[in-house]
């Protein structure tokens, strides 16, 4: 089920990217880049939301201070997913806010934090549900697109429907991640398995002799391994699924679409396709000369999509002067 959810996220992101490209003129270049940044960052934010992890637990150990971003996360949930675990008489979800927090620092130079400007990064750090924040921002950008002959409520509704699907995916992932293994079931299974393995040597010693010990050890390793695997697959987001590959695939597809648009725009500008009154002969001559000249275009996949907005946004690693 987790794989289906992320495949749906991949498909929705690609469809949204294609729709945005088709209506690029109505959307506008700056708004288009902002929307694509949000779509590219969404899977990383969702992965962080359901698979919490930091580069550093303490400040100053592995991230330079100027590139350090403190995420104001709530208290971490326990790694165990047994329902009913207690902390000083309180469940973790009902624990007092005065309990010490685990500091979480990330590097603003890395994905997805380098896709945002300074102010957006600070707001994102204070947000508890970051993928939902990204969906809300995408929705606001869609509502800010002006109406036109080629962009009406119908096209706007199609784009908002894609955002709704991304929002629903957050809840679906949370449902799997937050579904705990019943405590009574887990305890009973472990006790039954332990009792079986404890009495197994008495049944084998008559026939196996000195081989009873290694045979029992092998069976114990096998049975406890099956038990642990069954416990692990209850939450596929903790290692069963390669979420990093899926996140990178979405980002490359989104960034690659903008790179193609930039190349098309560059080519059209060089050929004079935007000039009015250009006849076919002149256009053919320009095309022939253009093909003989090497085209130098920055590789957006290497430099990052944030370079497109360098003239319209503030650097994400430092506040504006």
TrEMBL record:
Its main location: membrane. This is Bestrophin homolog. It holds the Pfam family Bestrophin_2. The keyword DNA-binding does not apply. It is a multi-pass membrane protein. The lineage of its organism: Eukaryota, Sar, Stramenopiles, Ochrophyta, Bacillariophyta. It comes from the Eukaryota. The keyword Ion transport applies. Keywords: Cell membrane, Ion transport, Membrane, Transmembrane, Transmembrane helix, Transport. It is found in: Cell membrane. GO terms for cellular component: plasma membrane. GO terms for molecular function: chloride channel activity. InterPro entries: YneE/VCCN1/2-like (IPR044669).
